[in-house]
Amino acid sequence: MILLTKSPLAGDLCALTFSICVALSLLRCFEETARRGVFDQKLNRKLVHITFGLQFMLCWPLFSSGSQGAFMAAVVPGVNIVKVLLIGYGIVKDEATVKSMSRFGDHRELIRGPLYYVCTITLCCTVYWRTSPIAIAAMCNLCAGDGIADIIGRRFGKKKIPYNTDKSFAGSIAMAVAGFIASVGYMYYFSMFGFVEKKSKMVVGFFVVSLMSAFVESLPISTKLDDNLTVPLANVLLGTLVFL
User: Fold this and answer.
1) d(C-alpha 104, C-alpha 41), whole Å
2) Where does the chain cross the membrane (predicted)?
3) Using CA atoms, how far apart are residues 139 and 101, in angstroms rounded to an integer?
4) Coil, strand, or helix at residue 167?
5) Cβ-based neighbour number of residue 26 at 10 Å
6) What is the per-residue pLDDT across 170-201, written as a single tens digit (0 to 9) for each?
7) Residue 168: enclosing H or E segment and its boundaries?
8) Whole-Å CA distances, 119 to 13, 77, 133, 185
9) How confident is the model over 65-82, as pLDDT tens digits?
10) Helix axes 113-123, 133-140, angle to 10 degrees
11) What's this model's pTM, rounded to 2 decimal places?
12) What's 124's DSSP letter?
C-alpha cells in the first residue's frame, strides 16, 4: 500500500478522495474536448473508454487490502453508475457528458454501453479486486482492447470479417494485441506491490483470454447487444477456466 497511515479507514478515504478527483478531472477534460469539438465524437468517446478504466486501475494500490479497500474503490465507478442513469433517463441534463460518451448524441445511449462499462469496473473491484488476473484481463480487454479496436478498425479496417461486416480484421487484431499488452503491463504493475505474482502461465492465460475477447467482440451478437456487455462476460467466464 502506497498511502501509509495508522488508520486503514482514513487511508482508504484519502485514496477515495484522490481517485474521485482524478476520475472527475479526466472526465471533465474529455467533456471539454467534446464540447469544443477537438476530436471527432466517436474518437472522443473511445478515448474516454480507454483512459477511464486504465487510470482508475493505477489508483488501486492506494487502497487497503481486503473487502474494505475493494468496496471503497468501487465507490468511484459507483458514482458514475448513478450519473449515467440520471443522464440516460433524462432526469439530469448534461450535454457535455452525452457528447463525450455517446455515439450519436442521444442521452438514452448512456444506459447501454456506458452503463455496462462502469458496472464492469464496479464488479471487478467488489468481486475480484487487484489480486485476481480475471479483473486485470476483464478491465484491460474492455478498456484498452475494445477501445483500440474501434479506433484502428475505423482507420484501417477495409478488410471486413465475413461473418460480421460491421467488424474488421484490423480492429480485431488490434483488440487482441492491445488487450494482451495492457494485461501483461498491469500484471507487472501489480506485482510491484505484491498483489500478483509474475508467471509465464499467467502471461499465456492473458494471451488466450485476449484472443477470445477479440473473437467475441467480432461476433454479430456483440453488435446486436453491446460489446461492453459481451466482452466482460466472456472474460469472466473464460478467465475463470484459465486462471482458477
Assistant:
1) 8
2) 6-27, 47-63, 69-92, 113-129, 169-190, 202-221
3) 18
4) strand
5) 16
6) 999 999 999 999 999 999 999 999 999 999 99
7) strand 164-168
8) 21, 7, 18, 23
9) 889 999 999 999 999 999
10) 160
11) 0.90
12) I
Q: Which amino acid is at 49?
A: H
Only one residue has cell 448513478, namely 82
In single-letter form, the type of residue at position 243 comes to F
Residue 123 C-alpha cell reads as 464488479
In order of 48, 99, 154, 169, 222, the CA distances from 42 in angstroms are 10, 9, 10, 20, 18
Helix, coil or strand: residue 37: coil
- Report d(CA 154, CA 170) in Å as an integer: 9
Rg for the chain, CA atoms, rounded:
18
Query: What angle do helix axes 66-88 and 113-123 make, rounded to 10 degrees?
Result: 170
> How many other β-carbons are positioned within 10 Å of the β-carbon of residue 36?
9
- Kindly report, residue by residue over 200-227, the tens digit of the pLDDT: 999 999 999 999 999 999 999 998 889 9
User: Which cell is 91 given?
Assistant: 432526469
Alpha helix positions (H), the chain: 8-36, 41-58, 66-88, 95-101, 113-123, 133-140, 146-156, 169-191, 200-218, 220-224, 227-243
Query: For the purposes of burial, counting CB atoms within 10 Å of the CB of 86, is it exposed (0-12), middle (13-18) or buried (19 or more)?
Result: middle
State the DSSP code for 91.
Answer: S
